[in-house]
Amino acid sequence: MPSHVDLDRQIEHLMQCKPLAEAEVKALCEQARAVLVEEWNVQPVKCPVTVCGDIHGQFHDLVELFRIGGNAPDTNYLFMGDYV
């Protein structure tokens, strides 16, 4: 795991709109994954998955999502936000 100095340097680099090296991005993603996977509210998701935004209880929007993406359980869906 990189030190706080490395992370501070990477943040400063990004704040100057300079890209990080691919290896640094991959390492940061892996470190974030290691932290997030331990959170109680993070659910495992089987890929591939179709991520859907809020449908706010709109049944016709749900039907349209299934029409475009395929029916469950043939297609995995992750609904973000309100679906009441």
UniProtKB/TrEMBL annotation:
<protein>
    <recommendedName>
        <fullName>protein-serine/threonine phosphatase</fullName>
        <ecNumber>3.1.3.16</ecNumber>
    </recommendedName>
</protein>
<keyword id="KW-0479">Metal-binding</keyword>
<dbReference type="InterPro" id="IPR006186">
    <property type="entry name" value="Ser/Thr-sp_prot-phosphatase"/>
</dbReference>
<dbReference type="InterPro" id="IPR029052">
    <property type="entry name" value="Metallo-depent_PP-like"/>
</dbReference>
<dbReference type="GO" id="GO:0004722">
    <property type="term" value="F:protein serine/threonine phosphatase activity"/>
</dbReference>
<dbReference type="InterPro" id="IPR047129">
    <property type="entry name" value="PPA2-like"/>
</dbReference>
<keyword id="KW-0378">Hydrolase</keyword>
<dbReference type="GO" id="GO:0046872">
    <property type="term" value="F:metal ion binding"/>
</dbReference>
<feature type="domain" description="Calcineurin-like phosphoesterase">
    <location>
        <begin position="48"/>
        <end position="84"/>
    </location>
</feature>
<dbReference type="Pfam" id="PF00149">
    <property type="entry name" value="Metallophos"/>
</dbReference>
<dbReference type="InterPro" id="IPR004843">
    <property type="entry name" value="Calcineurin-like_PHP"/>
</dbReference>
<keyword id="KW-0464">Manganese</keyword>
